[in-house]
Amino acid sequence: TLRFVQKGKGVTSITGEKLSEPQVLDAVAAVSGRFGVRAPFFLMLADQVTAGYTLYLEGSAASDEEPPHGLADALDAHLRGLNVEYDGKRASGRLSPTRVLWLRPGAGEAYRETMVANGQRDAQFKAQHLQFAHECTFDVVAWTRAATC
Q: How far is residue 37's CA from residue 44's CA, in Å, rounded to a whole number?
C-alpha cells in the first residue's frame, strides 16, 4: 500500500537539509506560542543565494514594531531538533542561521489576493508556507517592516 503524504511542493533543500512544510508549521506554532506571538500568516523562504531561510511573519506580540528578541534563534533551534540534516548543515556552517522578518498587517490577505490573481482558485486557496525565494510570486519585500531578529 502506498500512502502519499504530500505533493511535490512544500519541501526545500539548499544544501541537502530537505526541510518540509510540516516541520516549519510545527516550529512556528511551538515558537510563536512560547513567545506569545499570534501568527495568522507567515512564509518561510529558502534563499539559495544566501544559503539560508527567512521567516516572514505577520504577527502580533507585545510590540507590534518588531519580533520578540530571541525568536529567530528559538525557531532555528526547533528546526534543528526536528530535522537531523538541517542540524548537520547548520553545525557545519553550510546553512546560515534562520532570520525572522516582521510583515506589516494585511500581508496575509495581500498574499491571498496575489495567489488568486495568479490563477489559484479562491475557494481552494491554501497558503504554501515553505517555498524557494526565487519561486515566490508574492512581493514579500514590499510588506516587510524594517526590524529583524
A: 16
Q: What is the pTM of this model?
A: 0.88
How distant, in Å, are the alpha carbons of 14, 23, 36, 62, 73 from that of 82? 17, 7, 21, 28, 14
pLDDT one-digit tens code per residue, 8-56 = 678 999 999 999 999 999 999 999 999 989 888 999 999 999 999 999 9
What tens digit of pLDDT does each residue of 81-107 get? 999 999 999 999 999 999 999 999 999
**Phi and psi torsions of 66, nearest 5°:** -155, 155
Q: How many CB atoms lie within 10 A of CB 57?
A: 27
For the chain, give the secondary structure using H, E and C. Answer: CCCCCCCCCCEECCCCCCEEHHHHHHHHHHHHHHHCCEEEEEEEEEECCCCEEEEEEEEECCCCCCCCCCHHHHHHHHHHHHCHHHHHHHHHCCCCCCEEEEECCCHHHHHHHHHHHCCCCHHHCCCCCEEEHHHCCCCHHHHEEEEEC
Q: Whats the size of the chain, residue-wise?
A: 149
